[in-house]
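Record 1 of the preview.
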Amino acid sequence: MQDSHYKLGIIIPVLLTPILLYAVLQILPTHDDWASMTTPDFRPFFIKERFLFYGYHWRPFDSMIGYVAGRNPQLLFPTFNHLLVVAGHLLCTITLFRLLSELRFSLFSKNITTICFFVLPATMATVLAVDSQNQVFALTCDMIAFLCYIKLHRARYLVWILLIFLATLFKENGLMWALICPILAFGFDFIDQKTLKKDLLIAVGIMVCYMLVIVITPKDIVIHPDYEPGVMKVIGNVVKFLFTTFVTVDYVYLLHAPSRQLLWAVLSLLLTLPFLYLIWVRNWRKMINKKILCTLICLVIAVGPHLLTVFSMMHTYAGLSLLAIIIAYGIDLCKPQTKKTVIAFIVFLTASLAIDAHLINESIKSGLVGQKMAKEAIQKTGHPVKSAYVIIIEDDYPKLSSFCVIPVDAFGWGIAAQYETNYQWPKEIQDTTIERSADAMKRACQMAKTSNCESVWIVDHQDITVINNLNHP
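->
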């Protein structure tokens, strides 16, 4: 992998994409996948929720994807969603290669870094999800915005602002690159200090304009309790951010209690450490400079909205292009040790692919659990019903991001059953959760007697109990 005209950083991700897509297409929706706006939507195209701020999001592209999926749910959902996510991840990877070129990294460094970005286990919570195309395309638009910011002259500010706004319509954290672009450009000497101050004021203006649009746009604001900030929550989010961003390990084997195999977790960590040591630790003194400090500031800004509200493994993706810049810089510092770097990278790549395969397998298994529960509910119900009441006995079974979810979350609170009937029935689903106790099932059965729904589905971990025709002829 010596410097040459071969752009392996693009070629290898392109060759790996069909394999990744084949694997990802086997993953069924779970948890938030069932509740996002990218699920099949059967409402008319011209509704305010599809174009304006709604709930606590302004993501018109999510809503349009849901509309497309609703044209033929069994064919398009989640296949269409997965196609968008994987294609977006590849586009993001190619854009990263171009960004690293503009930042004047060597071809050797660009190749390794771009391949690394494409296969990093830290990307998998995003790449394997059904509803994460917003994160992927927001980051891609933001990186293109930066490229235009440093390359264009006449239309520089107009294109920069439009692309930042476009990224924000994919996902709100796309707005952060209004600040990131001038800071990163200053760090790599594309602009001077005077231009930095001026453009940071413009960036603040962009953010204020966005907030004004939110304020004056007709909307229904619903703030989810999980989005409320708190000191302990922020500290926990920072810990998650540092772990998922700077450490590569098999998360399932390490963190998911029912799947825990510490030997394999430690082995995955040991295989990835030499590469991480070479690029970050070995030359750490040389990395204390304006370029890296500005990049680190940008990294914190990129994930800042998630650190203050909700941070999960999926949100790591927002900062990974900036992490890639740090990796590329570290690799260039290792150039006198090229052979050692290549060997360490090959070991890292092998371990990362093995971790990715494990995470994909766990995600497939979680989706199949939800499908099995949905089919069981349909079979036990025995005939179409207009309404179903889902009573969930609180489940304290351990979960891990979107890889290992609680069965009821895979069941989607009953929505998975709607999907299995091609959304023909039940048309209405109500749900409630009761505390787990020795008499929880008895209480659930008593609640079922007072329900006005045609069928009641009691969910106890993976088991479904169906009670039909309570108050209906």
